[in-house]
Write a structure and sequence with these properties.
Chains A, B: It comes from Lysobacter arseniciresistens ZS79. Chains A, B: Its main location: cytoplasm. Chains A, B: Residues 1-21 are annotated as: Disordered. Two copies of one chain form a homodimer. The first copy, chain A, is α/β, with parallel strands linked by helices. Chain A has a single domain (36-199), classed as P-loop containing nucleotide triphosphate hydrolases (Rossmann fold). Helix content of chain A is 43%, strand content 16%. A six-stranded parallel β-sheet of chain A has the order 3-2-4-5-1-6, with helices on both faces. In chain A, strand 2, helix 3 and strand 3 (95-99) form a beta-alpha-beta unit. The radius of gyration of chain A is 21 Å and the shape is globular. Chains A and B meet through helix 1, strand 1, helix 2, helix 3 and helix 4 of A and helix 1, strand 1, helix 2, helix 3 and helix 4 of B.
């Protein structure tokens, strides 16, 4: 990086960059379909929910009307709660935010109550997915409720298929069912390379909380 | 899910949930170290930057002072720009936001100018990493500048090692160097399962932009 570069090296760099630009331009020109997408973030690694909240911020930045349903509630008030619900006065008219009533399922230890909570949260989500005025819907940790069988996958697939054509939906959580991956447009698997928790570091505000 | 459950099934569920809760409680009890962490989001899949912006929202939610440096600037104004820079009056005193001057490197086609831009952005980042008052630093797409050799990896590793002990740092971008992965606390690889772009769908506001 620090070595002096010859005019030749500069020229080679310019040519490579031009070819790359042409390639990217061609790819962009080929992507002509313009519609709402379904994004699924799954896998065991960190970043599934935080990526969903990052896309929520992007969507609010573009002036979209947004809905959020959190299907799992943690032990403590999270930063995204504090940020989007408390600081969010500036965009309160454009953001509906619903947090499922109960804690993690291994905290309630009551399967019937878990199912009732999950289905109540799904009813709110289904309302957003059917709403023409809703541009972006984040269904945080929905996959957990699907894997546990608390919400029927068919209901979710039907609601996604019937939603307004320009509406974006982001679904997060481990273990996304194969049929949901099939139905989605963009799917990322967040893979754990390493995690601070395994090295004895507590969950950190701003990072996990 | 819809079949009637016997009292036995309920009891088995409750026992499983109790064991799971005990396991999670033990793991949480073991994670006693409380300090700033370095998080790296890498891989080719979607979600690296959006996860970083989600953690920024969490951090702002907790009242943290935050810094952002974007090492690559796209073709258009992004939702995160609009959201955090324009709507962010409520927390302007707690957020420093720096966007590198030039576009994608294959758009400028001028290696010397790219290096100068990257190094100027790094100087801003280094100032944040040295700042005791800065609780959270997002270095978006820094990995790209490292892979291209526009910024020396040693500089970055030294600045991370010397930062305030409670400061969190999130670094995003494809191709995270091995020594950076080694230095980080939490590393996720975002793997592409599928991407809408490959199916001919344009980059969407609120999702990619």
């Amino acid at each position: 990086m620090d070595s002096p570069e010859t005019a030749d090296a500069q020229e080679r760099h310019r040519e490579r960059a031009q070819r790359k630009k042409a390639l990217v331009d061609r790819r962009i020109a080929r992507a002509t379909i313009d519609r709402g997408v379904v994004v699924v973030n799954t896998g065991n690694g960190k970043g599934k929910s935080s990526s969903g909240f990052g896309m929520l911020a992007r969507s609010l930045g573009h002036g979209f009307h947004c809905g959020v349903v959190q299907f799992i509630k943690g032990r403590s008030t999270t930063g995204e709660d504090l940020f989007f619900r408390t600081l969010g006065d500036a965009f309160a008219d454009r953001l509906r935010y619903h947090v499922m009533g109960e804690g993690f399922t291994w905290e309630t230890q009551d399967r019937d109550r878990d199912i009732a909570s999950a289905q109540a949260a799904w009813a709110v989500a289904a309302g957003m997915l059917a709403d023409e005025a809703c541009d972006f819907v984040l269904l945080d940790e929905l996959n957990i409720a699907l894997v546990k069988g608390y919400i029927a996958l068919e209901q979710v697939l039907e609601a996604l298929a019937a939603r307004p054509p320009r509406q974006h939906v982001v679904i997060t959580g481990r273990g996304a069912p194969a049929a949901l991956v099939e139905a989605a447009d963009t799917v990322s698997e967040m893979r754990v390379v390493k995690h601070a928790f395994k090295a004895g570091i507590k969950a950190q505000k701003g990072i996990e909380l």
